[in-house]
Structures are given as C-alpha cells and as structure tokens.
Amino acid sequence: MIDKLIDKIKKTNAPVVAGLDPMLSYVPQHILLKSYREFGETLQGAADAIWQFNKGIIDCIHDLIPAVKPQIAMYEQFGVPGMEAFQKTVDYCHEKDLVVIGDVKRGDIGSTSAAYATGHLGKAAVGSSRLSAFSEDFATVNPYLGSDGIQPFLDVCKEEKKGLFVLVKTSNPSSGEFQDRLVDGGRPLYEHVGEKVAEWGAQHMGSSYSYVGAVVGATYPQAGKIMRRLMPKTYILVPGYGAQGGKGADLVHYFNQDGLGAIVNSSRGIIAAYKQEQYAQFSPENYADASRQAVLDMIADIQEALAKAQA
Amino acid sequence: MIDKLIDKIKKTNAPVVAGLDPMLSYVPQHILLKSYREFGETLQGAADAIWQFNKGIIDCIHDLIPAVKPQIAMYEQFGVPGMEAFQKTVDYCHEKDLVVIGDVKRGDIGSTSAAYATGHLGKAAVGSSRLSAFSEDFATVNPYLGSDGIQPFLDVCKEEKKGLFVLVKTSNPSSGEFQDRLVDGGRPLYEHVGEKVAEWGAQHMGSSYSYVGAVVGATYPQAGKIMRRLMPKTYILVPGYGAQGGKGADLVHYFNQDGLGAIVNSSRGIIAAYKQEQYAQFSPENYADASRQAVLDMIADIQEALAKAQA
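Predict the joint structure of the above. Result:
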C-alpha cells in the first residue's frame, strides 16, 4: 500500500492529503437543512449531513490528490449513525481510487490492538467467513503502550499489505509535555519513538519506503528535520499545515532528496475553504469548488517550496 | 460520577470491574449458532453473538459489582454492527445501574479530542437538539499528546459529571519501552504523567476523590505503590488481574488506608471463566454462572488481601 501511495503521489505530483474532518459548523445550510428534513435533528440527521458534505468535496478533488485522511472522532461523536457515515466515506473514497488513511489513533495491548487492527485494516474471522469492517488502507496509531501494542498492527499490515503512521511528534501546542521530555540523559522521547518506528519499519519494507510511517507535525519543523535524518526510509505524515500554522516553506526538510518521504495533510484549510476570506468568491453552494481551489493552491505552495529547496 | 462509583463500591464491598471484552472464541456454541442462524456468518451475526453473550453475563453478575468496562476494540472489529453491539451493551448496563467505564483509550488534540469526549461522555449539538451517542460514565484516555489532548475531555466531564482514567503505566510486558524511560535525569516518564493526572484531577474533585483517575497495571505492583503515594486523591483503575497474572495480594498497595482508591479489572478471568479448569463444573450453557462464581472468587481474594494488609 505504501507503493500505491507513492505511485499516486508521483502521478498527481501532489504530496497532499485532504483531511476529511467534517464539523457540523462547516456544513453549508442547504445540506444541513436537507438532512434534517429527511432525518430530523438527530444523530442520523447529523451523520447524513457530514456524509453528503464529504461526498461533494470528494467528487470535486479526487483527481488532484493521492489520499484522504478521515478523522474518525468527527464521525464517532454521532454514535452508530456517525460510524456509518465514516464507513460510507471510506468506501466512497475507495471507489474513487483514493488511498484512505484512517486517522484513528488507536493503540492498546495484545489481543485488543489486534482487534483494532482487524477492524480498520484486516479481516475478522466470523465462522468460515473473513470479513472486512472499516477497511482503511493506513491507520494512525499511538505508541504509548510500546511494541506489543504495535506488533498486532504490523502483523495485519504484513498480511493485508496495508500500512501505519505512528504518532511521533504531534502538531499541537502541548505535544512537548511528554514527547519532548529528555530521556536517558539526552534526547527527547519522540526521537526514541522515531527510532523504534524505523526499527519496526525495517521489517516491513515496500520497494523504497517502509509500510510503517510516522506522524510529525508541520508546526515543529526542527523536529521534522531531525526525524527525516533518523528515519530515512519512513514516510512522514505531516499534519498542521494551513489552519494550524504550517506553510510549504517550513516543510521542505520533511522530504528526502528524491522529493518523496512526506505527505502533508490539511483538513479545515481544504474542507472549510469556502468560509475563509481568501475564498470569499465561492458561495456556500459552491463549497466544494472552494475546496478544489484550496487543494490547487496548497499543491502549488508545496511544489514551489520543494523546487526552491532543490534549486 | 466518581461519587456514584465509590458509593457503589462501598455498597457491594467489591472494588471490582468486569471487563466486557468479548472474543468470538469465548462465545458458547449455542449462542453463536443461534446468531449465525438469524444473521448468517456476517459482521451482524458476530455482533449479535457478542451482545447476547454479554447480556447473559450482565444478567448474572450485575448485583455483585459496581462497574463494567467494555473494551470497544472488541466491538469495533465488527464494524458498524459491532458498534451497535457496544451501544446496546452500554445501554443495558445503565439499565442495570452499573457504572460504565468505556475502555476506548482515545486521545487526540483540540477539537478532535472534544469530538471523542462528546461521543463517549457528552452530548452533540445537532440543530437545537443535544444528543448523547455512546454515553459511557467514564472513558479511558491516552496522554501521549499532552494537556491540550486531555483538556477537552475534562471540560465535558465537568459539564456532565463524568470521569476519566488516564493511561499512566499499562499492564503489558512492553509498557516500559517508553513509559519507564528515565526523564529529565531521574524518574520514569509514567511518574511525570501521574503527576499531571493529579494536577488535572485537583481541578475536578468529587467529594473525596477526583473525577480524573489513572490506569496502573496490576502487573507492576512497585509502580502501583509509588503512584498511590504520588496521586493520593486519584482513583486507580487496575487492569491485569487474573489472566494477565496479577493477584489480590499484589494489589493492596494500590489502595489507600480508607480501603478505597482502586478498582480492579478482570476481563477474560470473568467472562471466559467457564473455559478455565477451575470452573470446569460449569457447562458452556451455564457460562454466565461460571462468570458469577469467578466474580465471587475475585471479590473474596481482594477482600482477604485487603483485610490481611490492614491487620
């Protein structure tokens, strides 16, 4: 799956992921009202609204980008109907041949991690059937519980040719509270986590990069530079572009000399583009066109930064 | 909610949580076949089987214990139908007046953590409605992302009078890989996390203990002793009893002098008791009676250990 992701990045020339993290406040009135009319102001109504919202955006941007990253929390908050909307979104993205990174940040131990891996990347054995559930291509995972929390995910990835992005250095302001703690007399914890990611990844290689990627936030470019060096064969998923403050120029050190090795996520900046001053020419009815323009602008920003860096 | 939990612990004299972590391999044939007959060997069939299995156990043990801890991964692996089974289980436990600890180990940043908190502990605003989704009483959360990952959970807990158990030192063999790293020249990372938990908890007090609890595994009694001292007002959720190797005698230092302060989880040891040699007198048809006996034995083991420690 890492090979497919890289292949699509090369074809689109866009190391970009659209984060499908829909909030009801992003959904234009005409969609909201239609869903509420059909299902009432219920969890089902909310779930339908975010699904319709997503569908509009996916239809408008799928040809530009290699991958999407639905954030499951935004669906889970609406309970079972929300999870149905998540499932529909994942399935629809597969139909459009997009690589789907499930931003689920799961992590547990032993058989429990195995169950998460099964539900998101693998197949559940039910009697003599083997059945996919949510069926993303990659999942984000939390490393706090150590190797035996990660191993069951690795096993499923190997079998299903799927991949992971392990949280290393997250983009939020307080990520340093534990991740930056200096460990064993020197380096921050996240470097140790990154080294583990490289070690896990070495056992699970695609043709040039590993199936096991890492999350390093755009808001910490210095960490990006260090981690790029420490994990040369690791794809880095970079959240925090746009709304969280990261810019293309900050991101060049997340990439390798081959122009690969990183994929940059933007969520609000893409899906709620029509609410930004920069895209005020788009009406709420044309929200998905605004998203398309935001994707084009983001691709141009990153391509320009990479070109400058290589010049 | 921490007050309700403590009240129920006192009434039952049982600082015990039953972990509802059903695997299909635990479900007796007569239940499996009935579910498969009705729904086929499908995700829905699997989800129905684990729900029926749970229901039998809950009916048989709800009067003995204060709380249950469904592990969401075991449901999530069966996709949307699995999440429905999770919801049914939570709802049914509420009907039986059990405190429900959602073992979800979620953790993200900002608005994403807020969405998880909404889905599991709070209410989603949909139009003019405010709607509960999964609606547990407590949730387990992962601290790796730091304070701004936890704060949205705290906000919801305050509003809804619900609680958290933050992962501090987990019960699995490799938990030390990151959690035991010596930080800033001395103490292991988990102690720093524990101090943060106490700090977060001080802002959210029930009448004697905080709404913000901690997870410290039974398999690390030395850590339990240290954390008990560092977090005197923090309730400790202790996984790892029974199947993972912890015994009552190992656990006395997780409790305070008042006999409170800890609640011990057993999952497999209770729900799959009928498969153990010790309970071989119970047939698969009487699996729930075996669970009841396992709960009684566990309560006796812990009470005896606490009585000895106080003698």
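Chain A touches chain B through 74 residues (CB under 8 Å).
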